[in-house]
Specification:
The complex is a heterodimer of chains A (about 140) and B (about 180). Chain A is an all-alpha fold and about 140 residues long. Chain A is about 70% helix and about 0% strand. Classes of the chains: A mainly alpha (about 140), B mainly alpha (about 180). Chains A and B meet through helix 1, helix 2 and helix 3 of A and helix 2, helix 3, helix 5, helix 6 and helix 8 of B.
Chain lengths: ~140, ~180
């Protein structure tokens, strides 16, 4: 069996020919050329990526805004009306229009204590009062 | 009196400032040593491409060079990674060309042949060693580096490097029996 030193000596001799044959200048030129190409590509890549970043940011903003709206809608107590109708304007509406307003709010015809009639049978003042009660 | 040649650290700093000539000079200084290392590790005919890839990678990630090891040792560890990647891509064992083996000086043709065959067996076994064993062994036996520097370059401890070296020598001794 060979001694450790002999193994080391033989191993030390390996690769000598390959090192001698190496075209060092060609390697150096190749490395520099690749690095230079990288440096030139870097700004172009940024320019190409910029619209992509903008698109991503826009999509993110839409997602966040949408998420906030959905969350707000889901977390709103059911008893609260989902829209605010300016009370002073109600006086200008006809009964039918007021019923339409209720429909648009997705609110079933409310039944208050002692009031077991349909919306259509209420007069303008009663409907206005009813809306005010619902809005709190 | 001419200015002394700039140190590796000065050339690295110059490259960081964007001086391409500094990168080229570092390649000139260390390319042959890296080629020897990669050839012994089993790079075969791909040595030149691997050396180029090694330095290209080194300069691209020069910010991660901390100076715990020399630039040359650090480059060799990058070369080892490049060789591993090449093998993964190629999915083949490296072809070891006979002319890659340096025939040691000898007046005795028979002794020369035996030595050459032994060197060939050692080279073949080197390609089969676990990567860490192979790298530690070559950096120590071929490049003459201290365990401290080897450990820093390969991201291991001095004690572990010694163990890897010992195991590598034992395996190489077996193939020379």
């Amino acid at each position: 069996m060979m001694e450790d030193q002999e193994i080391e000596r033989l191993a030390g001799s390996l690769g000598g020919d390959a090192a001698e044959r190496l075209e060092v200048e060609r390697v150096a030129a190749g490395v520099v050329a690749r690095l230079r190409a990288d440096r030139m590509q870097a700004p172009q890549r940024w320019r190409w990526m910029a619209p992509a970043w903008l698109r991503l940011a826009a999509a993110l903003a839409v997602l966040i805004a949408g998420g906030a709206l959905v969350r707000g809608a889901l977390h709103r107590p059911a008893s609260e009306p989902t829209a605010v109708v300016a009370a002073p304007m109600l006086g200008d509406l006809t009964n039918d229009e007021l019923v339409e307003v209720f429909d648009s709010l997705s609110v079933e015809a409310p039944v208050h204590e002692g009031l077991a009639v349909g919306l259509e049978s209420l007069n303008e003042a009663q409907l206005e009062e009813l809306l005010r009660l619902m809005e709190g | 009196m001419p200015d002394p040649a700039p140190s590796d650290a000065e050339l690295i700093a110059a490259w960081r400032r964007g001086e391409e000539a500094a990168a080229a000079e570092l390649v000139r200084r260390h390319a042959r040593a890296v080629a020897r290392f990669l050839s012994a590790a089993g790079a075969g005919d791909d040595v030149e491409d691997l050396v180029q890839e090694t330095f290209y990678r080194a300069f691209r990630k020069i910010e991660s060079f901390r100076g715990g090891a020399t630039f040359r040792t650090w480059a060799m560890s990058i070369g080892s990674n490049a060789l591993r990647d090449l093998r993964r891509r190629a999915r083949r064992r490296p072809v070891v060309a006979l002319e890659d083996h340096e025939v040691l000086d000898s007046a005795d043709p028979h002794a020369e042949l035996v030595t050459s065959e032994t060197a060939q067996r050692i080279q073949q076994e080197l390609t089969r060693l676990p990567r860490m064993q192979r790298d530690v062994f070559l950096l120590r036996a071929q490049q003459g580096m201290e365990y401290e520097e080897i450990a820093a370059a390969l991201g291991t401890t001095v004690g572990a490097a010694r163990v890897h070296y010992h195991h590598a020598v034992q395996r190489l001794k077996k193939v020379t029996e």
